[in-house]
Write a structure and sequence with these properties.
It is built from 6 helices and 6 strands. By secondary structure, it is α/β, with parallel strands linked by helices. It has one domain: Rossmann fold. The chain is globular.
């Protein structure tokens, strides 16, 4: 079973992230879910963006690097929304990653994708943070880079649909996501 690092969204390390880590551990995966903020999680997305601005993206990225420093090179990089971007950013520094698991965000530019890299994206359809033209461009770039790409879209779900503590939550979409995620991880 692979090691997994699971990065939180802009809200911070919320109960939903800890519950997701526990779900993955129950499936016998080794999971690290670092707190990239070092302060209590935000209650609103606006407060989360304010926290990110106050802490700084570079500090958050450095904390993510520190969180993976002692993990095996083939650790699966995973994240929720902003955390998907963090996972994508670390890919260049961790070329042996066993996979890239992106929940609620595409993870940014696929410049460091190696041919055959397993990538799974779970995204609301539509998603306010992922405009269709940008997502299409991202998908083309991932495919051109040779990623083994799977994209799952969830009609009418809110952006952070796996988090039961936010208005975006969609229980059916969340359960479908976790079933696909476990299958993806079991193949690593």
């Amino acid at each position: 079973m692979p090691h997994i690092v699971l990065f939180h969204s802009v809200y911070g390390l919320r109960p939903a992230v800890l519950a997701a880590a526990d779900r993955l551990r129950a499936a016998e995966h080794e999971v690290v879910a670092p707190d990239l903020y070092g302060v209590p999680a935000a209650d609103t997305v606006e407060d989360g963006f304010a926290l990110l601005e106050k802490i700084g993206h570079d500090v958050v990225l450095d904390r993510a690097r520190a969180a993976v420093a002692d993990l095996p090179p083939e650790t699966v990089l995973a994240g929720f929304s902003m955390g998907a971007g963090i996972a994508g950013a670390l890919l260049a520094e961790r070329p042996a990653a066993a996979g890239l698991l992106l929940l609620h965000g595409s993870g940014g530019s696929p410049t460091a994708v190696r041919p055959g890299l397993p990538v799974q994206l779970h995204l609301a359809d539509p998603d306010e943070y992922e405009p269709p033209d940008e997502l299409d461009e991202w998908r083309r770039a991932m495919t051109a880079a040779g990623a083994a790409l799977e994209v799952f879209r969830y009609p009418n779900a809110g952006h952070l649909f796996t988090d039961p503590d936010v208005p975006d939550h969609d229980a059916a979409a969340a359960e479908a996501t976790w079933a696909c995620v476990l299958s993806f991880l079991d193949a690593r």
